[in-house]
Amino acid sequence: MMLEVDDLVVRYGSATALDGVSLRVDTGELVALVGPNGAGKTSLVNAVSGLMRPASGTVRVSGTVAQVPEGRQMFGDLSVDDNLRLGAWRRRSRRTDAVYELLPDLQRLRRQRADTLSGGQQQMVAVGRALMAEPDLLVVDELSLGLAPLIAADLVRHLAALNADRGTAVLLIEQEVGLAFGLCSRAYVLDAGRIVAEGPTAQLAAAPEVRAAYLGGFDEQENLS
Ligand SMILES: Nc1ncnc2c1ncn2[C@@H]1O[C@H](COP(=O)(O)OP(=O)(O)OP(=O)(O)O)[C@@H](O)[C@H]1O
Ligand SMILES: [Mg+2]
Predict the structure, then answer these.
(1) Which of 1, 35, 163, 190 makes a 20 to 30 Å CA pair with 179?
(2) Ligand 2 centroid to 41 CA: how many Å?
(3) Could you say which DSSP state residue 150 is in?
(4) Distance 152 CA to ligand 2 centre (A)
(5) Ligand 2 mean position to 141 CA, how many Å?
(6) Residue 102 C-alpha to ligand 1 middle, in angstroms?
(7) Of the bound ligands, which one is closest to the alpha carbon of residue 140?
(8) pLDDT per residue as tens digits for the range 20-33
(9) Three-state secondary structure along 175-217?
């Protein structure tokens, strides 16, 4: 077991963002977490990575977790290379070779300032920076946000290769359900702070909860079909 979240509650003041969420990611597993805006996806990943203290519940991780944060959060005035090195601030070795090997497109950009990169290139740096921590679990919050579909698909291929080569487990938060389900064999649907559906992606793709997530959330009663 790589990650085990049990009955997690996260609150901001009196507002409840996560209301008893449980999920698991097995060693080397590719798992998607989808859900409409405000469902609590970022709150969940921040609780998993320790950025956010839960009101109750437990997060158990066996191994190293690294997060690709929502919105990438580059250090714009630093080079690609320096941004990558910051991902290894806890480690003794800050060698970037392995990351350039996995993401060869970054090699020729290594001296470029991060704020001059395209959105797709920045997201690749954000993934590379997380990989510098040599994680057993990579948590990606909104991989495709603001990216052209072809670029997003390319990043997904990199995650698949990472998983195949190194056995890195991935928890992928993604609005593009098709993209997420293409990569992942299992998924959770989060809505209003609760897991409303879970299972193999092949079966979940047709579930009403997933269609709701696609459309940004609506009640069954309001569904005209
Ligand atoms: N710092 C905060 N203070 C107060 N409320 C917050 C804070 N961060 C998040 N929330 C609220 O918690 C709920 C869940 O937010 P969260 O960012 O986790 O959702 P999300 O699923 O990641 O949404 P999105 O798809 O838009 O990124 C929302 O109602 C949001 O307004
Ligand atoms: Mg979010």
Answers:
(1) 1
(2) 5
(3) H
(4) 17
(5) 7
(6) 32
(7) 2
(8) 999 999 999 999 99
(9) CCHHHHHHHCCEEEEEECCEEEEEEEHHHHCCCHHHHHHHCCC
Give nearest CA residue, ligand 1 atom 3: 12
Beta-ladder partners of 12: 15
Q: Which atom of ligand 1 is nearest the CA belonging to 45? A: 18
Dihedral sign for Cα 43, 56, 170, 193, please.
negative
Q: At which residue do the structure tokens 């079966």 appear?
A: 203
**What would the mean pLDDT of 194-221 be, rounded to a whole number?**
76
- Whether residue 144 has its Cβ less than 6 Å from ligand 1: no
pLDDT reading at 63 higher than 80: yes
CA distance 180 to 177: 5
Query: Residue 216 pLDDT more than 90?
Result: no
Residue 135, Cβ neighbours under 10 Å: how many?
Answer: 20
Domains of the chain: 3-63+136-224 (3.40.50.300), 76-134 (no CATH)
Our answer on whether the CB atom of 40 is closer than 6 Å to any ligand 1 atom is yes
Q: Nearest to residue 29, comparing CAs of 157, 170, 134, 142?
A: 170
Statement: the pTM of the whole predicted model exceeds 0.85 = yes
Beta bridge partners of 198: 188
Sheet holding 194-200, edge to edge: 65-68, 137-141, 169-173, 30-34, 186-191, 194-200
Q: Does any ligand 1 atom lie closer than 6 A to the CB of residue 15?
A: yes
Percent of the chain with pLDDT over 90: 71
Residue for token digits 């109750």?
56
